Amino acid sequence: MQKPVLFDTSRVQARAAQHKLQPFKVKQIFFELFKNQNISYEEMTTLSKDLRAELEQDFAPLSIEMEEMIEASDTTKFAFKTHDGYIIEAILMYHRQDEKYQVSGQKRKLNRITLCISSQVGCSMNCLFCVTGKLGLTRNLTRDEMISQILYANHYIKKRFGKKEDWTTWAVRNVVFMGMGEPLLNYDAVIKSIEVMLAQDKLSLGRRHVTISTCGIVAGIQKLIDDKVDVKLAVSLHAPNQTLRNQIMPIAKAFPLDMLMKTIDSYVKATDNRIFYEYIMIKGITDTPELAKELVELLRGRLAHVNLIPYNPHPSIDFLESESATIWKFKSILERGGITATVRDTMGRDAKGACGQLGYEKVMG
Ligand code: SF4
Fold first, then answer.
1. Residue ranges per domain, the chain?
2. 89 is annotated as an active-site residue
3. Residues 88, 85: Cα–Cα separation, whole Å
4. Spacing, Cα 174 to ligand 1 middle (Å)
5. Domain 64-364: which CATH number of 3.40.1390.10, 3.30.70.330, 3.40.50.300, 3.20.20.70
6. Angle 324-336/289-299 helices, nearest 10 degrees?
7. 49-92, pLDDT tens digit by residue?
8. Which of 125, 177, 178, 260 to mutate to test the pocket of ligand 1 (most atoms within 8 A of CB)?
9. Which pLDDT belongs to residue 357?
C-alpha cells in the first residue's frame, strides 16, 4: 500500500500526538521539505536520526518518482511516474533578466522560476492543436501528486544551482496549472493543492503567483466565484468567435463563447482580477488580421491581457506555426485596439516541453 506523504498535515500531526512529538518537531519536518528543499530523509539533518527512521516507516516524502528529465537552456522538463505507473510531466522555466543569462555559465541572472504542473494524467478535452489532448484522460491527479511536482522541482533547483541565501529566487515562486489536464475538471484536488501552495508554513506562494488555466469550463469558473478562490485565472480562448472555437476546441460546444464571457465577467466583478487570455497562433487558422480585430471587439472594455502563443509544430498534428511577422502584426492590431498583449517566448521547445507538447513521447511512441 502507498504510504501517506510527509506533508499531509493531519496525518503527521496525528502521528505526532500518538508519539508525543513536540509541535516544533512537526514544524521542523515541514521546514525541511518546503524551505530547505529536501526530499529524502538522508538530507533532513535538522531531524534526529531516530525520528527520521521512525518517519520513514510511515511516510514517503513525495508521492511520485522522477522517471526522466530533459535539460535545456531555458527549461527543464520532468517526466514523473505515479505510484500506479502513469507518466505525468512538469516544466521548469527560468526567466532571465538580461541577455547575459546562461544556465550553465557564470553570468547567469535569474529573475524568477516558474513551474508548469500537470493536474491530470492526459486530458479529455481534445483541443485539436494539443498533443496532450490526443492521450485522452486516464485519471485525475491527487493533491499530493501536484504538490510533489513542486517539491521535486525545488529540490532539483537546489541541486543544480546550490542552496542560496536568497532562497526564494532559487525556488519555484510561480506555479501555473498549464501542464497535462484541465484543472477545473479536477476541482477539489486542485483547490486543496492551492491551499498547500499558499500556506505560510508550506510553499508560501503569493496568490498572484498561482495561475489556474482553463479551456473554458464555465461550471468550474462559477465554482471559483462561489468559493471565493482568489488566484490568477488564465482562459485558453484561442479563437474570438464561436465558429472557429467549435472547430479547434470541442469543449466550445458545451460551453458557448457568450456563456463563457458572461461567466468570466462575473469572475472579474467578484475578484477584480485581470484575466489572461491564451491565444494560439496557428498559420492561416487563428492568425489573420480579421480575427485580431474580432478579438479586440470581444475584449473591448474587459479587464484583459492577451498572451499570443506561437504554435509548436508537431508531427502528429496537421497545423503550421504562424510567421513571426504575422504574430507581431496581430499583436499590434490588439494594441491599437487598446488590448495589452505579449508574445510568449518559445521556452521549452528544446526540452519538448513547450505549450501543447506535453505527452510528446507517448504520442510519438
Ligand atoms: S490544451 Fe489543455 S485543455 Fe486542451 S487538450 Fe491540451 S491539456 Fe487539455
1. 9-58, 64-364
2. yes
3. 10
4. 20
5. 3.20.20.70
6. 30
7. 999 999 999 999 999 999 999 998 789 999 999 999 999 999 99
8. 125
9. 57
